[in-house]
From TrEMBL:
Statement: the UniProt record of this protein carries the keyword Transmembrane helix: no
InterPro entries xref list: Glyco_hydro_4, Glyco_hydro_4_C, Lactate_DH/Glyco_Ohase_4_C, NAD(P)-bd_dom_sf
Annotated Pfam families: Glyco_hydro_4 (PF02056), Glyco_hydro_4C (PF11975)
Keyword Manganese: yes
Keywords from the UniProt entry: Glycosidase, Hydrolase, Manganese, Metal-binding, NAD
Source organism of this protein record: Paractinoplanes lichenicola
UniProt protein name: Glycoside hydrolase
GO terms assigned for molecular function: hydrolase activity
Annotated cofactor note: Binds 1 NAD(+) per subunit.
Domain of life: Bacteria
Similarity comment: family membership: Belongs to the glycosyl hydrolase 4 family.
Lineage: Bacteria, Bacillati, Actinomycetota, Actinomycetes, Micromonosporales
Cofactor(s) the protein needs: NAD(+)
UniProt domain Glycosyl hydrolase family 4 C-terminal: residue ranges: 194-406
Length: 433
């Protein structure tokens, strides 16, 4: 059993209770450990800590749990850092989604201008986290879930010596969209995806040992006019059959850009605004669970139930318990593991994780039909990370203009300045000049 000191940065978020429940569901793998939950909101921390303590006690776990708003104190002598935070909370995300729509550009949490500005805010906090770690926990490993995970990891791996492994369930869950749309059983499929986070494609795709594509072709012909199939599912099935590869759901923002833009512009609320409306209900549920002997999170009244950040916990357990596992991880493309991408570009691929760390499994190249867009997004990722870590307004505009969602330089300049002003409280001064 791995006895470690784990610091959970961002543990006072609406996902905090679910994340702690997920960690404690794996609790025997971490018996003898200390978990420190850190956030800037002491009231939210109290609720998450209380729920976690009660769950640990009910499960008979030998895990010490505490919370604090003092990040450096929390990080002192840490072995592992689980980072999942959102500077500016959902109010900032609402701006990321709403402002681009005014300029005829899709507003989205991790893609395009919205994702870029989330990266700027997140990486600004990461600069301070790295300084704290260098001072009080020089050997700690970062297990990152802070979005956009690819740009965050690109900045940290390029400009520091820290070990950071970023996780996202995309390679596990994206195939299900297409398989369900085709009426197929995901348990019978083997789909291997790679690329950059949220922008990955399948490089292997079989069903019961045979090529998946003929089955998808038949399903598309049978279901393309099916009114019971959602618009999104239909788009993903059509995209898979056209490009001959299973796509990440996020490719809807590129291959169906005009339709999605019109839908977002016509909607009364953005996704962030919907979440803001739901948050009071989540916290009411958490406060109710604080007052019961054995908390039980209701997935309908909480963000994610007991399955939050579970992939990061799997990676952490495999590493600290030296238990070999095959898992998807975002890390630099060392040795050109994924053909077609520079060695220092962070890519998402299936890896072997054990006590020696994370090592990419043999990777096949992305199909030519889809590789170019992913390479363009990787170049944007590289520029965005540089602007976030050490850049100025000029670097930010250059990165914005390189994003395929942004149509012209003029739009890049206008969008950058409006969004930088809106988020100025969360950005370094150098990005405002």
């Amino acid at each position: 059993m791995a006895g470690i000191k784990l610091v959970y940065i961002g543990g006072g978020s609406s996902r905090g209770a679910g994340t702690m429940a997920s960690i404690l569901a794996h609790g025997k793998e971490f018996d003898g450990s200390e978990i420190v939950i850190q956030d800037v909101n002491p009231d939210r921390l109290h609720a998450v800590e209380t729920i976690a303590r009660k769950l640990a006690k009910a499960q008979g776990l030998d895990i010490t749990i505490s919370s604090t708003t003092d990040r450096r104190a929390a990080l002192t002598d840490a072995d592992a850092v689980l980072a999942s935070f959102r500077p500016g909370n959902f109010d900032a995300r609402a701006l990321d989604e709403r402002i681009p729509l005014k300029h005829g550009v899709i507003g989205q949490e991790t893609q395009g201008p919205g994702g870029f500005f989330m990266a700027l805010r997140s990486i600004h906090i990461y600069e301070d986290i790295i300084r704290d770690l260098d001072a009080v926990a020089p050997n700690a490993v970062i297990f990152n879930y802070t979005n956009p995970v690819n740009i965050v990891s690109q900045a940290v791996t390029r400009f520091t010596d820290r070990t950071i492994w970023s996780m996202c369930e995309g390679p596990i869950v994206f195939p299900k969209t297409v398989l369900h749309a085709a009426g197929l059983d995901p348990a019978k499929a083997n789909i291997v995806m790679s690329g950059i986070n949220h922008n990955i494609w399948s490089v292997e795709h079989t069903y019961e040992g045979h090529d998946l594509m003929p089955l998808l072709d038949a399903a598309w012909e049978a279901r393309k006019d099916d009114p019971t199939l959602s618009t999104h599912a239909k788009r993903m099935l059509r995209l898979a059959t056209t490009m001959r590869s299973v796509p990440a759901d996020y490719f809807q923002y590129y291959y169906f850009r005009e339709e999605v833009l019109r839908e977002l512009q016509a909607a009364r609320t953005t996704r962030a605004e919907d979440l803001l409306a739901a948050l009071p209900g989540y916290w009411q549920h958490y406060e109710e669970q604080v007052n019961v002997e054995v908390p039980e999170l209701d997935p309908a009244r909480s963000r994610g139930g007991i399955h939050e950040l579970e992939l990061a916990i799997d990676v952490m357990s495999s590493y600290y318990n030296n238990k070999s596992a095959r898992l998807p991880v975002n890390l630099p493309n060392a040795g050109g593991a994924l053909p077609g991408f520079d060695d220092d570009v962070v890519v998402e691929m299936w890896c072997t994780v054990d006590g020696d760390g994370v090592r990419p499994l043999p990777q096949k190249p992305l199909p030519h039909a889809v590789r170019g867009l992913v390479q363009q997004l990787a170049e944007f990722q590289y520029l965005a990370a540089e602007a976030a870590w050490r850049g100025t307004r000029a670097d930010g505009i250059r990165a914005m203009a390189a994003n395929p969602m942004v149509p012209t330089l003029a739009v890049a300049e206008e969008l950058y300045d409006e969004m930088a002003y809106a988020h100025r409280a969360y950005l370094p001064e150098r990005l405002l000049k």
